[in-house]
Design goal:
The protein is built from 3 helices and 9 strands. With 146 residues, the chain is an alpha+beta fold. Strands 5, 6, 7, 8 and 9 form a 5-stranded mixed β-sheet that branches. It has a 4-stranded mixed β-sheet with strand order 1-4-3-2, sandwiched between helices. β3 and β4 form a beta hairpin. It is globular, with a radius of gyration of 16 Å. The model has no long low-confidence stretch (mean pLDDT 94).
Length: 146
């Protein structure tokens, strides 16, 4: 049996409002937001007395989703520095296809985002970059050329 689809990617954050604003500026839409707690979630995530607030965001086409979770209890722990380089083990970035990469970079900078490296062109196909946003979250941006 094969998987049906990739449903979402979870990012645990400290400042839910700031990270939501960053992804909304990127072009994602808030699908829902609310508290998550109870025995069922404790059993799924393996943490007793877990209380969190969760926001689900989706891409405009409705296929890609990012779930953001802010833990009230127990407090989240940081496994690495917020400015970890892109070769650090683990999930490093989420890539988004965009219409105008320079416009997106400019808009995300209003939310504190910075380029990780630089905006570069791959052959005659794409303009690509990595941007580090709130809490060290890295997103890749790809503008298809032609």
């Amino acid at each position: 049996m094969a998987i049906q689809r990739m449903d979402n990617v979870l990012i645990v954050v400290d400042d839910l409002d700031a990270v939501i604003a960053f992804f909304v500026e990127l072009g994602m839409e808030v699908e829902g937001r609310g508290p998550v707690e109870g025995r069922w979630v404790e059993r799924v995530i393996g943490i007793d007395d877990a209380r969190q607030e969760v926001a689900m965001l989706r891409t405009p086409d409705g296929h890609g989703k990012v779930e953001l979770a802010m833990f009230h209890t127990p407090k989240a722990i940081r496994a690495e520095p917020t400015d970890a380089p892109t070769n650090t083990l683990g999930i490093r970035r989420i890539m988004f296809a965009v219409d105008d990469v320079e416009d997106v970079i400019a808009r995300l900078r209003t939310h504190g985002a910075e380029l990780v490296g630089e905006l570069a062109q791959y052959e005659d196909s794409y303009r690509l970059c990595y941007v580090r946003g709130p809490e060290g979250i890295i997103v890749g941006l790809a503008e298809q050329l032609g």
